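Q: A reviewer asked whether we had any structural model of the full assembly, not just the individual parts. We don't, so I'm hoping you can provide one. Inputs are below.
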Amino acid sequence: MVATPITYWISYLFFFALILGVILIAKLPLLTVFKRSLIEIPFILFAVLMPFFGTGKSSIFFGFTIYEEGLLAAAAIIAKGTIGVLGAIALSATSTAKDILQGLERLKLPAIMVNIATFSLRYINVVSDEMERMKVARIARGFQARGVRDWKILGSAAAALFIRSYERGERVHLAMLSRGFTGALPKISNDSPNRQDLLGAVALPSLALIFSLLDRMVI
Amino acid sequence: MSTPSLEIKELAFAYPDGNQALYGVNIKIEKGERVALLGPNGAGKTTLILHINGIHAAGHGQVYVGGVLVDVKNPETLRGIRSRVGIVFQDPDDQLFMPTVGEDVAFGPYNMGLRGAELDNAVDQALILVGMLEFKDRPPHHLSFGQRRRVAVATVLAMKPEILILDEPSSNLDPASRRELAEILNSLDITLLMVTHDLPYAVELCPRSLILAGGVITADGKTAELLKDEQILKQNRLELPKGFNLQG
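A: Here is a predicted structure for the entire assembly that you could use as a starting point for your response.
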């Protein structure tokens, strides 16, 4: 999908239909999907500005100069972004974080990256709880962020959180060494995928690939 | 008499910044003993523990676990030592770092080379000992603090250690969790060294106590007798909770 030029717009319509199909088959609540896809907005804002800046072919549209190159680039960002975000939503809503990590491990993502993701997953709650407690402790002593002047306090709070997390990392490492850690975490996966899993996994990418090739050959 | 579970001879240690924490510690713990290590904050208790499994290298003196010298320079024996010394750290969140309880308990035995059914068995056995088997597939952050502490105990029990070391096992526990943990610890047939400020807990669980203060062992004897001696308590900045009555 990433490699398809935006001018093959029929391919993009098909990609979009495919991902919508996946969302419908997975019976994801559409409202939730919509809410989660709002994360894309900053990128869209950026993309919307692009046609107004650039060089090359241009035309006047309601008194604004629109550049063709910028327009295409913006369309590409919006189209690829939307389909990418929808794909990510479909993946995260249908698979547990553990399954995704297992999958990455099996896809031979370097172990160190899988480990970092595993630890992040485990400690994100611990760190956010800690952040929340620090916030409550600030409020309890009458602090209220009012403006730029208070950034210094928030900054030192962030620094304290960083140091605490760093020290926790050291303690976790000690605990790991104490239980005989020598550099390799146990593999997460136990069960290997069966045929149905494999077919399901290749269905979406192969459909997309076939259609995109067809589109290019026909035109 | 059989080989002691733990023997520490003239152990001294200074941190790289020059701060001396231990000044010649001598301890001998026989197999199956339950011993409390008492002492005020900053007495060097945690530093001492980290010598027992070779995380700190002794500046002077020796540590023997089950008769084997803890030698930081020898990675082979160090691995053996770490499987023989089970340390339960104070904050269970430091100890439980894997995505699920079961995987975390499997971490130690896996590092010791266990695989497959043997590994599963070790995990289940350890979780049964602390009554947490039904939580095997849960992520640690969904458990209560007391449950996490129990799982932390299971993570080291799964390695079948020669000696179980607990750093402040009763801290932050509500009374019911505190009692449940005591019942679990009492039911284990294992050599136990417990670092604590909770003197009633020491009386309940450990017939013998050591007091570490200023980097040396200042007292060693029957817990109940030590804690009755007001002179000793005062000298070592130890206090029984108000209203607590030592019987017997």
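A: Points you may want to mention in the reply: Chain A has a mean pLDDT of 81. Residues 39 and 85 of chain A are 8 Å apart (CA to CA).
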